[in-house]
């Protein structure tokens, strides 16, 4: 991978043709145009305006703007930063630093990164979650924190943290590539509370309701949520995966991703994450992931599988492991082969996602995208989310997203 490709992943994708718009890392590999060639500072970003109409509840408009600044200090050092600006339900402007990091390019294929960055876990988080790249105006139920729907309990948020990372790309003679990413970061925080013997079922239900209202955060499952799996009388451990400038223990989280790509069509990857979350550093959260992307000039198929293991103490004071897993599978079809000019910018999308075991859920989503320009999709989708604990919900979502 050439020296500016990693940092310019987002911008390079924006200059690709329509069939390559939302193809993540492989799409970026196809388009190597870098505005940093024109100067030392570049300004880019994305945003969206979204209308959500739930079957039960009030419809509402939402909006956000995500500016990105990129600075080239010299051929070997680049700096990037992304800030998300949005308006909450009370009309207050929320500001969040998505990432801010510095890249040092040891060679054309080797990079060291320091700062706050998106963790290389899976494909959706580091490559696909921006609204103009994501093919649906919502996210799969295995992920949380970037669609603000507050419906399902995700397995993981889109992971970001503060620390160090190492990236290496090896190019084989046949043109295929091996991507290796590793990181060490501050890691998760949280705790675990055992159920009191006189706890009432009504209290547990109240906690579950409070938890479902707070799913827009980076909490893995929420605060003291009653479990209905094999641990009926216990509470699921509280784990907070929000990036902070501190750590509640001396252990650091670590992990990475290894992927092999037969460019320009296929990429498969394996991911790992592990970090202690309690004050004593004795309880770990571990996550495993596998992802697949297949991309052609007029259709794509992608999917991810994630499994998490969260250690905690049961009501007997013994260490126990709480397992959850889930997946999503998504297919899209461009209508540019129909021969009808009006349909050429249109795209059909279908997605199925599911979380199993504790706080399980499943969601199907159908969408139609119309690309007004190569970086401005108009998206209309219908999705239905079914919850193991809670009422099902169907939504209609209309979104216009833009990358610049």
Structure overview:
The protein is mainly β and about 400 residues long. The chain has a single domain (about 10-404), classed as Porin (Beta Barrel), CATH 2.40.160.10. It is about 5% helix and about 50% strand. It contains four helices and 22 strands. The protein has helices spanning about 10-15, 25-30, 125-130, 200-210; strands at about 40-55, 60-70, 75-85, 95-105, 110-120, 145, 155, 160-170, 175-185, 190, 225, 235, 240, 255-260, 265-275, 285-295, 300-315, 320-335, 345-355, 360-375, 375-385, 395-404. Strands 1-2-3-4-5-8-9-14-15-16-17-18-19-20-21-22 form a 16-stranded antiparallel β-barrel. Strands 6-7 form a two-stranded parallel ribbon. The two termini are about 25 Å apart.
Give a nutshell description of this structure.
The protein is mainly β.
What are the defining features of this structure?
single chain; Porin; 16-stranded antiparallel barrel; two-stranded parallel ribbon; 4 helices
Proportion in β-strands: over 45%
Secondary-structure element series:
HHEEEEEHEEEEEHEEEEEEEEEEEE
Q: From the alpha carbons, calculate the radius of gyration and give it in angstroms.
A: 21 Å
Mean pLDDT: 83
What structural class results from the helix and strand content? Answer: mainly beta
Terminal Cα span: 23 Å
Shape: globular
What is the annotated CATH architecture? Beta Barrel
CATH topology: Porin
At the fourth CATH level, what is the homologous superfamily? Porin
- Helix percent band: under 10%
Strand tally = 22
* Strand numbers in spatial order across the main sheet: 1-2-3-4-5-8-9-14-15-16-17-18-19-20-21-22
Low-confidence stretches: 1-38, 192-217, 221-233
Domain count: the total is 1
What's the total helix number?
A: 4
**What kind of sheet is the major sheet?**
16 strands, antiparallel, barrel
Provide the CATH top-level class: Mainly Beta
